[in-house]
Write a structure and sequence with these properties.
This protein has 16 helices and 2 strands. It is mainly alpha-helical.
């Protein structure tokens, strides 16, 4: 294991204790059953307790790379009914995004907290409502103000993190039927100010940002704000491949045709500069406080 309290030696010790009180056949069956449930949680494969909403949440959890929540989900899948497991999955996704993805709380600290909750679910019949109360009161959970403040300046370099955040912001404002087609199945993260900039973008950045005086300044500006939430949106894959690093005015023609409100609303920003990026990020941070409230 990665963390000291979950070392290989301790794992072997626990398996040794279990094996003394469990027949070999039963132990193998339990391990096999646990392995099957783990694969279901990891891959979101078919299971009587996994709804479509739950499968989506498992997909996003995998994208966020927060495997430390799997033991709790494993116990939940075993102990809870379908509706309660769906609530647990949604709760875990919100919590892990808040504390790990955004606030970057120490993984070892979170792993121990989640392991203790999993123990209480399995041995003390802890309910989803009780889990929610415990996570809300956790010292790891930021206040709404702290979370929103962090979201105002946050950058996400991983595309899976970017996509999850953007899709949830879209779903907050639009019917799920729209985002199922355009934002989940065939979606792509679009950098409004692109990853690679040429002379036209250099000149554009210099023209519309007073502190940017030359090409070198423009390169620094681009690197600094490229992955800012305010500089990201969602488009369909064909559109993204055709947009590339085209000038902003050319991109705008494609944005206006989008079914995704977040993207078509870029018409409110006729000039794409630092002021626009920060204003858009401010708006998203206010929405995030509502969306990721436990």
């Amino acid at each position: 294991g990665k963390y000291s309290f979950n070392s290989k030696n301790k794992l072997y010790d626990k398996l040794g204790i279990i094996s003394k009180h469990t027949s070999g056949e039963k132990l193998l069956k339990n391990l096999r059953d646990a392995n099957i449930l783990y694969k279901i949680i990891r891959d979101g494969t078919s299971h009587s307790k996994i709804s479509n909403l739950c499968r989506d949440d498992l997909f996003w959890l995998k994208g966020l790379g927060v495997k430390i929540v799997y033991p709790l989900l494993l116990v939940g899948l075993k102990k809870f009914k379908k509706n309660d497991f769906e609530k647990l999955t949604s709760l875990c996704l919100k919590y892990m995004f808040r504390v790990k993805t955004v606030m970057n709380v120490n993984a070892s600290q979170l792993e121990q907290e989640l392991a203790e909750i999993a123990f209480c679910v399995y041995h003390k019949n802890m309910t989803v409502s009780q889990i929610k109360d415990k996570l809300i009161q956790s010292s790891n959970n930021p206040s709404h103000e702290t979370f929103q403040s962090q979201m105002k300046d946050i950058e996400f370099s991983k595309s899976s993190h970017q996509k999850y955040l953007l899709v949830k912001l879209i779903e907050h404002d639009q019917p799920r039927s729209v985002t199922d087609i355009t934002a989940v199945a065939s979606a792509s993260v679009e950098h409004i100010m692109p990853r690679k900039i040429k002379d036209d973008w250099h000149n554009y950045i210099i023209k519309h940002n007073g502190d940017v005086k030359n090409k070198n300044d423009a390169e620094i500006f681009q690197k600094k704000y490229l992955n800012s939430l305010g500089n990201l949106t969602i488009v369909s894959l064909p559109k993204n491949s055709s947009l590339g690093n085209k000038p902003y005015d050319d991109k705008m023609k494609k944005y206006l045709a989008s079914q995704i409100g977040m993207t078509s609303e870029l018409k409110k920003y006729p000039i794409w500069n630092l002021k626009s990026i920060k204003k858009r990020q401010e708006k998203f941070s206010e929405q995030a406080k509502i969306i990721w409230k436990l």
